[in-house]
Amino acid sequence: MGLGAYHGADDNERRREIVGWFLEDDRFPEDKFVLHMGDRLIEQRAEGKRGTEIYAFPGVGRSIYIHALVGFIEGDFNHFDGFPEWLRLVQLELAEWLRAAPGRKAQYFLDMARLESYKLLPHARSDPRGQFE
Fold first, then answer.
1. According to the model, what pLDDT value does residue 120 have?
2. Cβ neighbours around 12 below 10 Å, total
């Protein structure tokens, strides 16, 4: 799903909408731990202590998306080439990991955004955020 699929006056408004799906959710106390673990796994990957298996944990993808989207929103960079080296590396590795299996990318997005499969909850198509209420 591309950035244009979200409503907003400009790219930053759309980025804010998307990043909201990945930021810590106060309704779930363990969510802060999930994001902390995602950051920690990325650090361990950079230190050579872990391999690309870290990308199987949705907290890693959430962390990558948060850093990238917030960086765009805050003007730290305006293109992939402006990413810090560590963010470029993990983003490229995540993209490669997602392409390695059919259907992985769609399911990973749902897992990162803490959503159930749209196939299991049809009403989520029109109100994905309300599915847990």
1. 45
2. 14
Which has more confidence, 64 or 126? 64
Buried b (16+ CB within 10 A) or exposed e, 49-67: eeeeebbebbbbbbbbbbb
CA 24 to chain centre: 11
Q: pTM for this one?
A: 0.76
Q: Which amino acid is at 4?
A: G
Q: Which two tokens stand for residue 116?
A: 């159930």
Tell me the chain's radius of gyration from C-alpha atoms. Answer: 15
Residues 70-86: pLDDT tens digits?
A: 999 999 998 989 999 99
Angle, vertex CA 57, rays to CA 41 and CA 108, nearest 5: 140
> How far apart (Å, rounded) are the C-alpha atoms in residues 122 and 111?
17
Alpha-carbon gap, residue 120 to 124, rounded angstroms: 9
Nearest partner of 22 among 82, 65, 70, judged by Cα: 65
CA-CA distance, 112 to 66, in Å (whole number)? 11
Please enumerate in sequence order all residues whose Cβ is within 8 A of that of 129, keeping only pairs 6 or more positions apart, or say none: none
- Specify the residue for token string 């997005």: 109
